[in-house]
Design brief:
Layout (H helix, E strand, L loop, with lengths): L1 H10 L3 H13 L1 H5 L7 H9 L4 H9 L3 E4 L2 E6 L2 E4 L11 E2 L4 H15 L5 H13 L3 H9 L6 H18 L3 H9 L7 H10 L2 E6 L7 E5 L7 H10 L9 H9 L6 E2 L2 E2 L6 H13 L9 H10 L1 E6 L4 H51 L6 H18 L3 H26 L8 H23 L15 E5 L2 E4 H23 L1 H11 L1 H6 L4 H24 L10 H14 L4 H21 L4 H18 L10 H4 L1
Antiparallel strand pairs: 1-2, 1-4, 2-3, 5-9, 6-9, 7-8, 10-11
Length: 631
């Protein structure tokens, strides 16, 4: 079918074009039969300019379907032979022409001009890809002369490629600058690959710098070392080579006679100036080759100028290219900053979610619960068990969240009734007791689930990421955790400000004795508060388990950050907890960027910063005020 289409194109062509093709085959018969990569280029250019009749010939040649019979070129089609010029069947056996890979590459480049107008979309796409891989100046005019592509995607690709080739090969500086400016906001690697060579420089040295597009004048000693500057002079034949100190000392040592070298006592050769003088004397006697002295080096450097000169002669073009690359760098910095901010916000939401339960137990009750991390772990394992029972990931997640809250709520109530209530106002004993409970819960989890990490798979609608701009994205599951953290913040504020339980909690926190005299049972309120904080930790465990490994040590990975979040933010203040989580999340991500290869060092630096911060703000960012602060 392609052959028929190209034949039709031939029929509508001019007789002059057909005659030219016929003449070319006769003229270059030997070169076509035995092509060489070094000499076939001009022949291919003439064939390409002869018209569409050359297209099937070049295709057959590149595909090794071209042969010769008695000096006639024929197409090899299965067992048959067809004359290239007449289309008639040719009897006999053909000698196949098999160009090497280098020649085939040149043929493919010549074919591009015909393939750009091919009815087959795939061939047009291949033609654009071929130009992009090995573009030269001739392709610029080919693209400009080609008919518009009916496919919008290929049309956009061709337009982009045309502008890139305009930057590289157009002789009109205004057109090149316009092409560069047309990529405003683009940071593609192909564009960078075109712009960077424009800014390539060559370092030159001369008594008077040549006129041209100078990137920067260099001052020896500041922009370039004196050694590098003098080596440049030597390489360009503008100065004599200077011996190294070691070679100079060796040459002087070989010519010591009666303790003298070049009329200077050997004992005095510790002075570099005297060494140069002695060496100059040896040069005058013809005993050593001439070399530059220190004074000569300094004088030569002072007499010459040094500069980096652009290979591109037009300063307007280099200015446009530099502005475009500067814009790319600025956009990349903005993208990196936004990406870092999103990562920090995501990490802060995780810390806040892990710490909000602790803010209730530690902040309101003043109970140091070292088992808080294990409640997070219990919530994660609850999510895993739920998924083993319910195959639907969305439904299992819906069931796991309230189940995790209920289980950890009950576990918190049990812990309070058995341990915490007996250690009220005894923080050290509470810390040791809950630490022992933490170890026991970890061991129980190992006995039940083993030491291997268990999978907690997120639903399919939480897969992927949300893209805000070019290069700025955040995983959907982290967005979900951020939303969950905000929901819990709103829920906590609602409970504490709008419910009877919240009113009773605030009363017991500020003045337990007065609250008891008003008919409030402080022990019951403390138990409910502890259970609420533990339940929220369980829900946090489900959320964290969706992207972290569910193991018995899961909670211990977050307990330290949770305590730091509560202490830094301000004990007993939910807004302080939010501020603390934001500070610690941002600080950790910032340190990781500065020291990405050592996460342990990053955590160490963060802890040191927190220690220093507490020295200046011992009550945190947002401390409680009034009676709550004195409780």
């Amino acid at each position: 079918m392609r052959f028929l289409i190209l034949t039709l194109l031939l029929l509508v062509g001019s007789p002059l074009s057909a005659q030219s093709f016929d003449t070319l085959l006769e003229t270059h018969q030997d070169q076509i039969a035995q092509p060489s990569r070094q000499t076939i280029g001009p022949v291919l250019e003439e064939l390409g300019a002869s018209g569409p009749e050359a297209a099937p010939f070049l295709e057959a040649w590149a595909d090794r379907r071209l042969g010769q019979v008695d000096g006639r070129f024929v197409y090899i089609e299965g067992d048959g032979l067809t004359d290239v010029l007449t289309g008639e069947a040719v009897p006999g056996e053909a000698r196949a022409l098999r160009p090497n890979s280098g020649v085939r590459g040149l043929i493919a480049a010549t074919l591009v001009q015909f393939q750009l107008s091919d009815p087959d979309r795939g061939r047009r796409a291949d033609a654009l890809a071929s130009i992009a891989r090995q573009a030269d100046a001739s392709h610029l005019e080919i693209l400009r002369a080609a008919a518009p592509d009916p496919d919008p995607t290929l049309a956009a690709q061709r337009d982009r490629l045309l502008r890139l080739l305009t930057i590289r090969f157009d002789t009109d500086s205004a057109a090149r600058i316009a092409a560069i400016e047309s990529f405003d906001g683009d940071s593609g690697a192909d564009l960078q690959g075109v712009l960077n060579p424009i800014l390539a420089t060559t370092r030159v040295a001369a008594r008077v710098l040549p006129s041209g597009n100078i990137a920067a004048e260099l001052e020896p000693g500041s922009d370039i070392t004196p050694e590098e500057a003098y080596a440049l002079l030597v390489s360009e034949g503008l100065a004599r080579a200077r011996l190294s100190d070691a070679d100079q000392k060796a040459a002087l040592g070989q010519h010591i006679i009666d303790g003298m070298v070049g009329g200077i006592a050997a004992a005095r050769l510790t002075d570099p100036a005297l060494r140069d003088e002695a060496y100059s004397a040896l040069v005058a006697q013809g005993l050593v080759p001439a070399a530059a002295t220190s004074e000569e080096v300094e004088a030569t450097l002072a007499a010459h100028s040094f500069a980096d000169v652009y290979a591109e002669p037009d300063s307007a073009v280099t200015n446009a290219a530099q502005a475009a690359l500067d814009g790319m760098e600025m956009r990349e910095m903005v993208v990196q900053g936004a990406d870092l901010a999103l990562d920090a916000l995501s990490l802060a939401s995780i810390y806040f979610l892990a710490a909000i339960g602790l803010a209730i137990t530690f902040g309101v009750m003043r109970v140091i619960n070292m088992a808080h991390g294990e409640f997070i772990m219990m919530g994660a394992y609850t999510g895993y068990v739920t998924q083993t029972m319910i195959a639907d990931r969305t439904l299992s997640l819906v069931v796991a969240l309230p189940a995790a809250f209920a289980i950890t709520f009950l576990a918190g109530v049990v812990l309070y009734r058995l341990v915490i209530r007996h250690l009220v106002r005894r923080p050290l004993e509470t810390l040791l007791a809950t630490f022992g409970v933490s170890i026991a819960l970890q061991q129980i989890a190992k006995n039940i689930f083993g030491t291997q990490a268990r999978p907690l798979t997120a639903p399919s609608w939480l897969d992927g990421s949300i893209t805000f701009a070019e290069g700025i994205s955040i995983s959907t599951i982290r967005v979900a955790i951020f939303v969950l953290a905000l929901l819990f913040l709103a829920l906590f504020l609602f409970i504490m400000k709008r419910t009877r339980l919240g009113l009773q909690v605030r009363a017991v926190t500020q003045d337990p004795g007065m609250a008891s005299s008003m008919g409030i049972n402080p022990d019951r309120i403390a138990m409910m508060t502890f259970g609420l904080g533990s339940g929220i930790a369980g829900i946090a465990g489900v959320a964290i388990g969706l992207f972290a490994k569910v193991t018995s040590e899961l909670g211990s990975d977050y307990i330290v950050q949770s305590f730091m979040t509560v202490v830094v933010g301000g004990v007993g203040n939910i807004w302080g907890t939010l501020a603390g989580a934001t500070l610690i999340g941002g600080l950790q991500k910032g340190i990781e960027v500065l020291n990405p290869a050592n996460t342990l060092a990053a955590q160490t630096y963060m802890i040191l910063f927190i220690i220093i911060f507490i020295q200046f703000r011992p009550r945190g960012i947002m401390p409680q005020k009034g009676r709550a602060a004195e409780a």
